Amino acid sequence: MSARPRVLLVGAGSVGQVFGRFLAAAGCELTFLVKARHAEATRAGFTLHPLGLVSRGPPERLSGFEVLESQDEVARRTWDQVWFCVSSAALREGTWVGGLARATGEATWVMLQPALHDREWLLQHVPEDRLVSGLIPFISFASPLKPGQGPGPGTAFWLPPLARGLFSGPPGRLREVVRALRQGGYPAREHPSVAQAMAVPSAVLNVFVTGLEAADWRFARFREGPSVRAVREATREAIAIATGGHRGRTAWAVGLLRPLAFRLAFLGTRLAPFDMETYLRAHFTKVSAQTRLMIREYIDTGRDRGQPVRHLEALNAPGARTLPR
Length: 325
Ligand SMILES: NC(=O)c1ccc[n+]([C@@H]2O[C@H](COP(=O)([O-])OP(=O)(O)OC[C@H]3O[C@@H](n4cnc5c(N)ncnc54)[C@H](OP(=O)(O)O)[C@@H]3O)[C@@H](O)[C@H]2O)c1
What we know:
four-stranded mixed β-sheet; binds NADP nicotinamide-adenine-dinucleotide phosphate; alpha/beta; Ketopantoate reductase; Rossmann fold; KPR_N; 2 domains
C-alpha cells in the first residue's frame, strides 16, 4: 500500500462523486474511469451539495483528480483500490469487468451493487481475498430534482443521521478501505456480512419501487390503489428468497409489511431534506435496468429452489400496471 492510496473509481455518477469526495478528503490519489461520453464533463470537476435535516452545507468542488477512458490507460498504472460505482446492470454489460481484472493487478476491489448475485458474478473475475463489499447508506442525485427546487446544479447528497456505511471482506483489505473512508469523514464500519445486511432492505426496496412505478411514482396512488396487497405478497416472496427462507432473519422484515408500518414509512419520507417521491422517480427511472434484473433474479432463484414466486411474476409481467390482489 502506497503512502497515498491510489484509488480508481469506475463511474463518476451520483455515487462515484460522493465516494470520491470522502476519499479525496482522506488524501487518496483519485482517478475516475469513465465512458468517453462523460470524460469532458468529468475533467471539468464536480459541484457537490451536502444536505442536512435542518440546513445544507455550502457547495463544495471536487476536482484535481485524473480521468481515464480506457483499460489500456488503467493497465499502465498500479492501483491499491478499484471501486465499482456503477449499477448491477452496468456490471453485467459486455466483458469490460474481465478486462479490468487483467488491468488492475492485485488491487482491492470494492463492490457496492445490490443484486442477489452480483458478488458471485464478480468472484468469477477476482478472488474472494481481494473483494470488499459495501452498502450505500446515503442518497445522492443530480440537482435540482425539479427546476427551482433545492440546491443549484451539481450533485446533492444526504447522509441520514446515524447512517452507517457497512463494509465486509478480507480483514487486511477491509481495514484499509474503512480507514481511508473514516479519515475522510465518512461513517464507515466493518460488518461480518454486507450481503446479509443488504438482503432484506434490497428486497423490500426493489419490490416496493416496482409497485410504485406501476402507480406512476405517486405515493398516494400506490397507497390507495389495488396493488398494495400484491406488492406486500411479492415482498414476502422476495425476502424469503433473499434470505434463503431463514426465519430468524425475516420475522422483523415481515412485520414491516403491516399496513401501519407502511403508513409510518411513508410519513418518515417527509423528514428527508428533498422531495422523496421525485427522487425515487428520478433515481429508479435511471437504474430501471437494475431493478428489472433484481426482480428477475429473485424469480429465477426462487423457482430453482422451489420457493413461491407467483406475486413476483405478476409484478414483473410485461406492461403490468395493475397487480393482482
Ligand atoms: N444515487 C443514490 O442515491 C444511490 C443510493 C444507494 C445505492 N445506489 C446504487 O449505486 C449504483 C450507482 O448509482 P448512481 O446513482 O451513481 O448511478 P449513475 O448516476 O447512473 O452513475 C453510474 C455511472 O457509471 C457509468 N458507467 C456505467 N458503466 C460504466 C463502465 N463500464 N465504465 C465506466 N463508467 C460506467 C454510467 O454511465 P452511463 O449512464 O452513460 O451508462 C454513469 O455515469 C446503483 O447500483 C444504485 O442503485 C445509488
